[in-house]
Design brief:
220 residues; mainly alpha; Ferritin
Length: 220
């Protein structure tokens, strides 16, 4: 009799084992550490571009309070929004690889959002000096103070000339990345860097066109 019981229960045991296997297959996989899929040049590029973008955001947010012409203000808004989003993406890229992710906008106590009309001068605050993280094309603290002091056509002119140089610096950073053997190949980073190159070349063209419509060399 015991032999017949074993015969009858064997299929049940097999079903139970199969059920446990299917249940285990449905369990979430244990998170594995991210692959070391980057080079030192990749990490340096991303960190440097965060600081580069942060200065562009500060400059662009001033358009609302500095009397920028409508088309310049629209350009500024587009640049500020897109580069804020890209800063977040770059921070996540670094964090996913257990690397330090700088947050320069949070480090700028004098940076006021576009909606803030408090009149505080950001460039008088210690955090506005980003000279310790100067990347190609970035404005010096003195140039940032001059931009913050300008209004109307003078602001438009200084912003456009400064941002054209700023964008050209970003293009240089992308070129340096891709010129470094083995760098810029991680898929997410490759896509971002090529987007920066294409997008900022297009924005340089728009800024050059707007600049030609301004009164030459405004002084105030």
């Amino acid at each position: 009799m015991s032999h017949s019981i074993r015969i009858r229960t064997a299929p049940q045991v097999a079903v139970a084992v199969l059920g446990l296997g299917l249940f285990a297959a449905r369990l979430p996989a244990q998170a594995s550490p991210p692959a070391h899929d980057y080079t030192q040049a990749d990490a340096a590029f991303v960190e440097g571009m965060i600081y580069h973008h942060a200065q562009a955001v500060v400059m662009s947010d001033w358009a609302v309070t500095h009397g920028a012409r409508a088309d310049v203000a629209t350009l500024c808004k587009r640049i500020a929004l897109s580069q804020r989003d890209e800063i977040t993406m770059m921070q996540h890229w670094l964090q996913a690889r257990h690397l330090d992710a700088p947050d320069p906008l949070a480090m700028l106590p004098g940076h006021r959002p576009a909606a803030d009309s408090s009149g505080m001068s950001g460039t008088s605050m210690p955090g506005m000096d980003m000279s310790a993280h100067m990347m190609p094309g970035m404005l010096t603290p003195d140039e940032m103070r001059a931009l913050d002091a300008a209004h109307g056509p003078a602001f438009d002119h200084l912003y456009l000339t400064g941002m054209i140089r700023h964008h050209e610096g970003a293009l240089d950073m992308v070129a340096k990345l891709f010129d470094t053997p083995g760098s810029g190949q991680q898929p997410e980073l490759f896509s971002f860097a090529t987007d920066v190159d294409a997008g900022q070349r297009a924005e340089i063209g728009r800024m050059q066109a707007i600049l030609k419509t301004l009164t030459p060399s405004p002084t105030q």
